[in-house]
Amino acid sequence: SYELTQPPSVSVSPGQTARITCSGDVLPRKNAYWYQQKSGQAPVLVIYEDRKRPSEIPERFSGSSSGTLATLTISGAQVEDEADYYCYSTDRSGYQRVFGGGTRLTVL
Amino acid sequence: QVQLVESGGGVAQPGGSLRLSCAASGFKFNSYGMHWVRQAPGKGLEWVAFVQPDGRETFYGDSVRGRFTVSRDNSKNTLYLQINSLRVEDTGLYYCAKDFHLEELLPYYMDVWGKGTAVTVSS
């Protein structure tokens, strides 16, 4: 079982706001990271250290974290944002890294 | 530019062994920790292992500890993953990835990924 829990799927219409959550006991103490993986491609980092965005990632992507819940928000989701999204952090020991189960975002 | 290219995947029998390689270029390889991440067909990402920049210490996920060995040859800018006692559930795409932090001794997060090498374990 995953130590980071994500909903299996989220669906929005183009232009709407998509929110993907990640729940884990470690999140009050450890940063969350978010990866986007489009079909047949390697993952891409979209959010690091809870809320920071790499310069090449569009501004519509944002992250937040409160207590045991981290959230990836895509404001004004676009069709090209359709992908699997994975949160990532550490396990309870602090020495292993762990991914959430992934959330498939559908934009249509 | 920063590039990671995995190789060594293929078809192997249960109980067998494989050694995966990852050739790195475009950055100072011996200054960064490196990760392996795998993905079973149609499944999610699984963090597998991390090796410190100088190769002294390694960290593993619970499901692979004792069967997998991560190592590196900094003179060749190459990362390795030795997989022993192969199981059917080891089937998947294996990615190598660079850690973001310079000279960090603990695994943090990956900022650059390769395209992966496919491993199939089947009798």
Detailed description of the structure:
Helices cover 0% and strands 44% of the residues of chain A. In chain A, the strands form two sheets. In chain A, strands 1, 3, 4, 7, 8 and 9 form a six-stranded mixed β-sheet that branches. In chain A, strands 2-6-5 form a three-stranded antiparallel β-sheet, with no helix packed on it. Chain A is globular, with a radius of gyration of 13 Å. Chain A starts with 8 loop residues before the first strand and ends with a strand. Chain A is mostly beta strands and 108 residues long. In chain A, a hairpin with a 2-residue loop joins strand 5 and strand 6 (69-74). The model of chain A has no long low-confidence stretch (mean pLDDT 95). The termini of chain B are far apart. In chain B, the strands form two sheets. In chain B, strands 2, 4, 5, 6, 9, 10 and 11 form a seven-stranded mixed β-sheet that branches. Chain B has a four-stranded antiparallel β-sheet with strand order 1-3-8-7, with no helix packed on it. Chain B contains no helices and eleven strands. By secondary structure, chain B is an all-beta fold. The radius of gyration of chain B is 13 Å and the shape is globular. The mean pLDDT of chain B is 96. At the A-B interface, strand 3, strand 7 and strand 8 of A face strand 5 and strand 10 of B.
